[in-house]
Amino acid sequence: MAAITLRNGDQNGDRTRPPWGQPTDRQALVFLATLPLLLLITGLLIEPPGAVAAGLCRIITARSLLLSDYLAVGGPGATFVNAGLCGLIATALLPLARVAVNGPFIAAVYTVVGFAFFGKNIYSVWPILLGVWLYTRVQGIPFRNSLLVALFGTTLAPLVSYFSFAAGLAPVPGLALGWITGAAAGFLLPPLASHMLRFHDGYNIYNIGFTGGIIGSFFVAIFRGFALEVTPTTMMDQAVSGWLPGYFAVGCGGLMLWGLWLSRGGWRELAGGLHRIHGSSGRLVSDFLQIGNYPASLVNMGGLGLLSILFVRAMGGWFNGPVIGGLMTVVGFAAFGKHARNCLPIFAGVFLASLVKVWEPSTTAVVIAGLFGTTLAPIAGQYGVPAGVLAGFLHLSIVMNVGFLHGGVNLYNNGFAGGFVAAFLAPLFNAFKRREPRHAA
C-alpha cells in the first residue's frame, strides 16, 4: 500500500488553498494528535501522578496476551496515559517519515490507540517498529513505504511483553528474547502482508491481523516445541462503564461537529461525499478521504462511533479496555472501509449468533466480536445484507476458536478469524451470485 507524501505546498511553506473541505497537512496532523492528547490529559487528571506511574509500570510488565484489560491491570489513569502516549508515538512517525494523513493512517493511529487499552504499551511497540525499519534498510526502500504495516504490525506487541517479563526467564535473557522476537516479527510483516491480501482478496479489512495471526502461530508453535508454553489469558474488568460511554460518545459527537465545521456550509459537497462513502463496498483499499471527502469522512467516523456505542449498550456489554479498543478501531476504520450500511449486517449476524449459540450476548468476547467483526464489512458492502449477516454469524464461531493457534500474541484475533471467513465466503458468493462491484457515482 503506497504511502502519500507531504504536499509540496506545506513542505515549502506555500499557503496554496487545499481542495474543498481538506485541511492542510499541519492541520491534519493536529486533528490526528487530538485524540491521543485528550486521552493523555484525561489520564493525568483522573488519578494522581504516583498512581499513574505505578500503573504504567504494571502495564509495561504485564503479560499482555489476549485478553489483558489494562484498566484492570494498571487502572484508568495509567491506561489513558498509555493510550495517549502510544497514539502520539504513532502520529509523530508520520511527519518523520514524510507521510501525509490519509484514511489508512487515520485507521492505523486510532487502532494503535484502541489496542493501547488492552495489549499494546509504550515499551512493547518499539521492537515491532524496529523490525519493519530494518526490513526497509535491507531492501533499500524508504521507511514510509512500510510505515502503515509497521503501525498495524504492533498487533504482535504481546510477543515482546510476554518474553520480556512473563516467560519465567532471567531479566537480561528475557528482555533480549523479547526484543529479538519482536524485531524478527516486524521484519517478516511487510513481505507477508502483501501476499496474505490475496488469501481473502481484500474482503477482510484487518489484513495485518490475518498476517499477524500467521506469524504469531509460527512463533508460538516453535516456542512450544522448546517448552515455552504461550497460552491466551484473560485479565479483565467486566464492569467498568461508569462515565466511559458518555466520554466516548462526546468524542464521537465532536468528530461529527469537526466534519461539519470543515464543510463550512457546503452541504451539497458534504452530502455527495457521504453518498459516495456509503456507496462503497469498503473492500481493500478504500480510502474514504479520496472516495468521499474529508468532512464526510469525519462525519462518518463520528456517526459510526455513536452507532457502535448503541450496539454495545443493546448487547448489554460493559465499556472495559477491549470494548473501548473495539470502538476506537471501528471509528478509525470509518475513514478506511467501514460505514453504517456495511457494518450493521455484521452487527446483526453476531447478535443472532449469540442468541442461538453457547455464548451470552453481553459477554465481552461476544461484544468485541461484533465490533471487530466489522473487518468483514466489505462482504456486506459487495454482496448485500444477507451475506453480511451470514458473515457475522459465522465469524463469532471462528473467532472463538482460533486464539489458541497464536497463543494470544496477535491482538487482532478478529482480523485473523476474519481472513478465514472472508476466504471461505467470497469464492462461494462469486460462484453463485456474480455481481459487479458498486462504484460510487
Describe this structure in words.
The chain is an all-alpha fold and 441 residues long. The chain has 2 domains: 20-225, no CATH class; 244-432, no CATH class. Helix content is 68%, strand content 0%. α9 (157-166) runs antiparallel to α10 and α15 packs antiparallel against α16 (321-333). The longest helix is centred in the middle third of the chain and has 30 residues, at 171-200. The protein is globular and about 65 Å long. The two termini are 24 Å apart. Residues 1-15 have low confidence and may be disordered.
Write out key terms for the chains shown.
441 residues, mainly alpha, 2 domains, 68% helix
- Structural domain tally: 2
Instruction: Write down the secondary-structure element order.
Output: HHHHHHHHHHHHHHHHHHHHHH
The biggest beta sheet reads: none
End-to-end gap: 24 Å
In terms of DSSP E residues, the strand content is under 5%
> What is the molecular shape?
globular
- Low-confidence parts, pLDDT < 50 over ≥5 residues? 1-15
Q: Radius of gyration, Cα only, in angstroms?
A: 20 Å
Instruction: State the helical fraction.
Output: 55-70%
